[in-house]
């Protein structure tokens, strides 16, 4: 049983994916509160917009580690979400601050539904990724 750089990458990815799961859960809960009128759009957007940048950075950071460790399958699993993050960042609404969510347009039914669906899909992706990284970590620790 040897501790390799690939095992380190999977451990880091496992920990950071746990944070991304919490971000996705917070995303889903926030938009559910917005849909049920428990919070106003300005509060929701001001709490979610800073987390979007952190989410993008965290997701790309452990994928760079996968690139350096030559874990190609793990990297290929994450490339579609990285491409989607880049697309969402490029097509974000014009606002005075940074982030993806504009308080003036988030209450549109289609925008709110899309944001909620995006949160659920990311949550499912991060949960599946978490268990895959757990498997990858155990496999690399045992196989070398």
TrEMBL record:
Localization in the cell: Membrane
- Transmembrane keyword on record: yes
| Cross-referenced InterPro entries | Cornichon, Cornichon_conserved
Q: Which superkingdom, per the lineage? A: Eukaryota
Q: Does the keyword Membrane apply?
A: yes
How does this protein sit in the membrane?
Answer: Multi-pass membrane protein
Coiled-coil spans in chain? none
Keywords in alphabetical order: Membrane, Transmembrane, Transmembrane helix
Record-annotated membrane-spanning stretches: 7-31, 64-87, 123-142
Family note = Belongs to the cornichon family.
Protein name, UniProt field: Protein cornichon-like
Organism equals Limulus polyphemus
- The protein's gene is named LOC106466239
């Amino acid at each position: 049983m040897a501790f390799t750089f690939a095992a380190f990458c999977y451990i880091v990815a496992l920990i950071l994916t746990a944070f991304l799961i919490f971000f996705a859960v917070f995303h889903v809960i926030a938009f559910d509160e917005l849909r049920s009128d428990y919070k106003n759009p300005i509060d929701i957007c001001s709490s979610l917009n800073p987390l979007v940048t952190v989410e993008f950075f965290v997701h790309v950071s452990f994928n760079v580690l996968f690139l350096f460790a030559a874990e190609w399958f793990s990297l290929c699993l994450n490339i579609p979400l990285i491409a989607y993050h880049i697309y969402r960042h490029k097509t974000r609404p014009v606002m005075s601050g940074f982030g993806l969510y504009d308080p003036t347009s988030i209450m549109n039914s289609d925008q709110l539904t899309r944001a909620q669906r995006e949160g659920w899909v990311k949550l499912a992706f991060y949960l599946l990724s978490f268990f895959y990284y757990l498997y990858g970590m155990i496999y690399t620790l045992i196989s070398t």
